[in-house]
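From the shared-data thread, chain only:
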Amino acid sequence: MLLFNTINRLRSKGEGKGGLILLFERGFMKNEAEISREKEALKRFVIGDYAKIAILEQLAKGEWCTLGELCRIAKNYDKYIGPVRVSTILLYIEKIAKDILEKSEGGTLIKWRVKPEKVKVIEECVEEVKTRSYRKTI
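Structure, as tokens:
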């Protein structure tokens, strides 16, 4: 919401392109090099781990997923995975690629999803990882 208010305020002042530079300086927008670095770091994090790939693939659909759903999906590849490890994976994904996940907490139910504007990037990342020749076996 803050981003849209800032953009609208800059448009109303007629700052145009200078406003975009201001948004970069304030950290609202990332340059291509930073996005590329985050994407590569995310690929390195999930490559070779079927459970991580499955979690990221489910999140890339853009729908809200509960922690239990993500655990069930990951258990198909690693029978020892549980809510703690899935939560840790989600936190690492958020740390590696900042502002990519949304978290919704309602009572005892926690849901995660990839932000709608980032879905395409994550889908591409998942497809690249799935087509790589090196993948660990479980």
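The chain has a mean pLDDT of 79.
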